[in-house]
C-alpha cells in the first residue's frame, strides 16, 4: 500500500514538472514581450542567467526603447554621432594595443608556439562571445547611466541661473550622476572649461539646430516676424566666444500704437526684439535689426546678435515661460 502511494505521488510530481514552462521554452515573440516589460536593471539580471537569455536581453530592440524613454529628450543626433566616434576610437585603440602586444611577443620569443597561440585564440573567442558589444544600445545606456560617457546637449539658464545668463541656452558637454539624478556640465566660453554641478533634467534640451555653437545660423524667418512672435536669437560676448540662444519676443516699433488692426510693424524693414526679463532702461532690454540685411550685428561692448529662430512649437514656448525669473533682472 505504501509503495503504491509513493508511486502515485511520484507520478503527480512528474506531471507537474512536465507542465512547467521555462522562459527558454517560449517562442521569440512572447519572450520579447515579457522582456519588454522589464526595467534596465532587471534585463541585466536576466542577461546573467544563461547564454540564450543573455543574447536576447541585450538586443538593441529592447534597449532602444529604454534609451528613448529616459534619454530621448536630452540625447540627440549630435550626441549619438559623438558616441559612434567614441566607439570607433576605442576599437582603433584595441587594435593598436593588440598589434603592439603581438609584436612584443614575437620579439621576446622569436619562435612559433602553436599551443600558446591556440590558447590565446580560445580565450579571445570566449571573451568576445561573453563581452557586451560596444556599439550596442545597451552599452550606450549603461555608459550614460554610469557617467562614463560625456555627451553634447544644451543647458538653460547656465551657472545656476546667473543674471548674466537668464533665459538663455548654451552648449555644453554633460555627464550624468545617477546618485543625485542630476548632471555635471562643462562649458567652453573661450580657451578654458568652466563647470556646473547639480543640473536637473528640466534644464536640458537637444540642440534644435545641428551646427557648431561658433557657427552663425542663417535665419529663414525674418520676413515673417510680427509683434508678439516668440523667438530665440544667437548672442555672444565677442567673436571668439560661442553663441548661446536667448529667448525674446518681437515688439512694436516706437511709432506704432500697438493696436492689432492698425499695426503695420510687419511691413517695416526694422524689427524690434524685446527681452522682457530685463528691467526697463537696461541696455539688454531691447535691440533692433534690419530684416532685409540682418546677418550679425553688434560690437565688443554690447556683444553680437546672430541668427534668429521663430518658435512655432507651443511646448518650446511653454518651457521658456516656466524658466521665467520670479523677479525682473536688473542688469545694465
Low-pLDDT parts are 112-128
Helix proportion range: 25-40%
Task: Enumerate how many helices there are, as a single number.
Answer: 10
Quick check: average pLDDT?
Answer: 84
Distance between the termini: 101 Å
SSE succession: HHHHHHHHEHEEEEEEEEEEH
Largest β sheet strand count, sense and barrel closure: 11 strands, antiparallel
Radius of gyration: 30 Å
- Morphology call: elongated
Tally of strands: 11
| Strand residues, percent | 15-25%
Output the structural class. alpha+beta
In summary, what is this structure?
With 332 residues, this protein is α+β, with helices and mostly antiparallel strands. It contains ten helices and eleven strands. The termini are far apart.
List keywords for this structure.
eleven-stranded antiparallel sheet, alpha+beta, 332 residues, 10 helices, single chain
Can you walk through the features of this model?
This is F-box domain-containing protein. The protein has helices at residues 2-19, 28-35, 40-47, 51-57, 60-71, 77-109, 114-130, 137-146, 158-161, 314-322; strands spanning 151-156, 168-177, 182-187, 194-199, 204-205, 230-236, 244-251, 270-274, 286-290, 297-299, 303-310. With 332 residues, the chain is α+β, with helices and mostly antiparallel strands. Among the domains are: 77-146, no CATH class; 151-205; 222-322, no CATH class. Strands 1, 2, 3, 4, 5, 6, 7, 8, 9, 10 and 11 form an eleven-stranded antiparallel beta sheet that branches. A hairpin with a 3-residue loop joins strand 10 (297-299) and strand 11 (303-310). It starts with a helix and ends in a 10-residue tail after the last helix. Residues 112-128 have low confidence and may be disordered.
